[in-house]
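Task: fold both queries, return tokens.
Query 1:
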Amino acid sequence: METGDSGAFYTGRDWTSQGNVLKHNFIHNLGGGDAEHVNTMGVYLDDCDSGDTVEGNVFFQTGRAIMIGGGRDNPILNNLVIDCPIGLHIDSRGMTWKQWNDPKSSGWNLEAKAEKMNYKHPPWSERYPHLAKIMHDSPREPLYDPVRRNVFVDCTKEVAHLDGNVKKLLGKFEIEHNLAVNTRGVAQGIALTKDLKGFTNLSGSAAKPIPLGMTKTAQGKLELHQDPSLLTKQIGFEPIPFDQIGLYRDDYRRELPE
């Protein structure tokens, strides 16, 4: 709530953090951090971190909802981002930062960390083939980060922030069937995408707003509005089981022997 350059979920500087899945979380109401840079994140995959899947999550009033800091093999799938300044960030810091893969720079010895896992040999090489061949496959580029079926609702600054190198590499990216929504057709203060590969823009109006977003009940509970017929028709979005997200109370009591 009171820091910048941070994330509700954070990890970084590791090619071998493969196979983690963040699915069906509600990440909301984070602090703003530095307002100029919008540097509080919902999910922060920092400094070339690779191999994490972000799927089916709801982000509401975070800073940057999802940030990929130069990493690879990070699928971003079927997430719903609502009222965040920046929905998605992908940069190419591996291509531009001199400390990339430098064993002498604090924590940046990416190749050496992978070598410790014997990553070129089974079972690692069989499970993670992109990782096994990384040193012969443009290792500094943020490749194999599919972005599919995500919905970005009323982003106030940018729907997707892609740096210059990423934009040049878009031919290698799997970005498809994403939706940028301006629920009320507001002319100022709501961002849409401009000819960005894999994104469709959708605008409502004050008279006929698009029924997507969060509302608060009289009891103060946040309710999610996701129109399955609209989203499924537009991009094949799979409704998120929002009512099942959160803490559970387990009333099951096991009878112990005397």
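Query 1 returned. Query 2:
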Amino acid sequence: MKKTTGTDRSITSKWRPATQAVRGGTWRSEHGETSEALFLTSGYCYDDAETVAARFAGEQEGMTYSRLQNPTVAMLEERIALMEGAEACRAQATGMAAMTTALLCQLKVGDHVVAAKAAFGSCRWLVDSLLPKFGIETTTIDARINGAWEEAIRPNTKVFFFETPANPTMDIVDMAYVCGLARAHGITTVVDNAFATSALQRPLDFGADVVAYSATKLMDGQGRVLAGAVCGTQQWIDEVLLPFQRNTGPNIAPFNAWVVLKGLETLDMRATRQSENALKVGQFVEGRVPRILHPGLASHPQHELAKKQMKAFGPIFSFILDGGREQAMALLNALELVDISNNIGDSRSLMTHPASTTHHGVGPETRADMGVEEGMLRINIGLEDPDDVIADLDQALTSVGL
């Protein structure tokens, strides 16, 4: 494999994000292909026994096993790191593999985690159910309240964990404050940035230590594959995360990595256009429903903070109907264009009822604590003409009496 200018940090660091998304991390074989090559191999062969020994000892660069290195995966990792402004990245099999790895690789019995109570259902399960099984203490707080973070700190607090915007309540966390507080107390911040990606906000710019992703969402952007990623300093990735990943194996398949590479080429355009579409649709919905949760609207209580942290507000928002689950499901069933689906970040408009899907597993009490109401619907606005999405929502809302 021949590394191109796409892997030379002295060159790529001068490129703007949209350029990095297309060319960053590119390697080429002797064939000189323009599109990144797909290497479907589990292992590698060596010219002699001394070479393989040197590689396993870390004394010589080169591939050893695809649980550790793969050319296609390495290209994806380099590209995401460049876009994120990170020194290093390790790709993961799924978004939840990324979240689990980012937490477990650095925590042990007796440690304490402070986490936002508003989160994706599986992320909240990690905090409430998985970590305590390993003797790790956890505290969930209202992450919108800056003082709540400081009040929750204990002598054994090791990690702050949150997503912003949060799924599906669209809570915004003041990253500069929270990450600054963490640094002052020697606490590592892990930020789930899946709702925005680096195209819309870069948590490292606000002082975050680790950024974790479900690349299944906006990075792929077309609902094709599962993927995840974790970004941080080279030292943290190599010394903290990599030993865990090497020995537990939550690795992404090369094919999935290749698909995400293709998705990244259009991420900036998709995220920008979908954000514009979502704002237009949100402005329409706001006049028709009792409550809407869209950080791009002035009605959102953290609108000004979102404007400071985000280039645009993303394709996703939520709204709440007074008629509870029955009315919410009736609206879903009335849709003609927008698909009923629990995915997000897709180029197609999708809507789901979080209480019965993404947050079903955490139980009613936890859902109430998180603010996930029975009448809540979460929508991902795609690349369709927004007027067609508005027309579909108009007829669906009318059919349920709104």
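Both queries returned. Flag for query 2: The mean pLDDT is 96.
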